[in-house]
Amino acid sequence: MKKLIGVKKVNTAIFISGTGTNLKNLIKFSLSKKSPIRISLIISNNKKAKGLDYAKKFRIRKKVYNYKNKKIEKLILKDLKKDNIKFICLAGFMKILSKYFINNFYGKIINIHPSLLPKYKGLNTYERVIQNKEKTSGCTVHYVNSKLDGGKIILQKKIRVYKKDSAESLRKRILKDEHRLYPKAILKVFSP
Ligand code: GRF
Predict the structure, then answer these.
(1) What Cα–Cα distance (Å) separates residue 182 from each residue in 17, 56, 177?
(2) Best of 14, 21, 22 for a ligand 1 pocket test (most atoms within 8 Å of beta carbon)
(3) Residue ranges covered by each domain of the chain
(4) What is the CATH topology of the domain spanning 7-106?
(5) pLDDT, tens only, 35-82
(6) Of all atoms in ligand 1, which is nearest to the CA of residue 114?
(7) Fold of 112-192
(8) Is-catalytic flag, 179?
(9) Is the whole-model pTM more than 0.90?
(10) What distance in angstroms lies between residue 54's CA and the mean position of ligand 1's atoms?
């Protein structure tokens, strides 16, 4: 990965499915001088994803793919190559990428997850953390491999879980940390 950094920023695609607050935050980061990435494509599996509005706002190309089509990943890969995409950030992307897809971008896909992995992989992390009366939780940026939320950890941020916390208050607090953590993790990925 370190080889990728040069004079130019690395062409990057962000995959989303929903609100896109991480997307917005990454776009802002990518516009800063210190960012090693340039976001040139936003991909969504959901045409109603609110995050797609940022494509227009920041003049970034967007593409929506229908995942009901079994051959869709082949098409996405073809499009990514055509657009010379070299790096992928998943930011609230709700589809599981196949081994075939990942192998085509091995070590070049990262994801953010709202728990302290390896704890609480998958969905409903906040509810499970509250239910289990955990004292800490947090967020993790990790490489994507074929195991769900199982790739090598790049960075984590831990927070306290308070007795008065609900799943929603926890979600909001962790999201703020996600916005700080994701850019830091990208800097780490590309640091010499
Ligand atoms: C974040 O909590 C992220 O960790 C998870 O999905 C959520 C996406 O939020 N994978 P947003 O769409 O970036 O606001």
Answers:
(1) 17, 22, 9
(2) 22
(3) 7-106, 112-192
(4) Rossmann fold (3.40.50)
(5) 999 999 999 999 999 999 999 999 999 999 999 988 999 999 999 999
(6) 4
(7) Rossmann fold (3.40.50)
(8) no
(9) yes
(10) 15
